[in-house]
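Predict structure. Input: Glutathione S-transferase, 208 residues.
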Amino acid sequence: MTIIVHHLENSRSQRILWLLEELALPYEIKRYERHPKTQRAPDSLKAIHPLGKSPMIEDDGQVIIETAAIVEYLVTKAGGTLGAPEDKTGAKLYTQYLHFAEGSMMPPLFGALVINRLGFLGWPAKKPILGMVEDLLTWLETELSSRPYFAGSELTAADVLMSFPLEASQSRAGLDDRFPNLQAWLKRIHDRPQYQTALEKGGPYAYA
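Output follows.
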C-alpha cells in the first residue's frame, strides 16, 4: 500500500518527504495550505486526526502522528535503512538527536516565532529566547567539529529530524557565519538529490 503524507506547506512535514525519498518508499502527497493571515493549518487536517497537525501519515489503515514517531516507523518499514549506526557511540548519538530536535531545539524556536509576530510587545523576551537558541547552536557547532553528520560519518534519520530546526534557525534565529560547521552540514544535506526531489514534490518551503 502506498503511504499517504498529509503535508502542510512550510512545515516540519517536509522532512518526511525527504526521508521517504532517501528510503525509496512509495508515497502520495496530500497538500494543505496555511491560512494566509494566521498561518495555522486548515481544519481539513482534523478530518484525518482530531489534533489537525502536520506531519501525519496513513499506512496500512492507520494514521501516525508526531515527526519522530513517523521517522522511526518509516525507518523500520525500510528494514533499518538510515537507522542507528551499529557502534555504541553512533547509536547513542542517533537516539539523542531523534529527541533533541523536537525536545530541545523547537521550543525556543517556536518562542522566537511568536515573539517576532508580537512586534514591539515581544521585545523584552526576544533577547533571552535568542540567547537560548544561540547556546544550543554553539554546542551543536562543536558536535559537528569532528564528524560530518550528527550520528557519525554517514547520513541517518537523526539528520532528517535535525534539518527543520536548523533550517528555521538559519532563517530567523541567528544561524550565520559564526557557525561554519552547521552551515556546511546544511549545504551537505541540501545538495543531496533526494532532498532536491522532495523539495520539488513538496511545493513551497521557505527554509531550504
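The mean pLDDT is 92.
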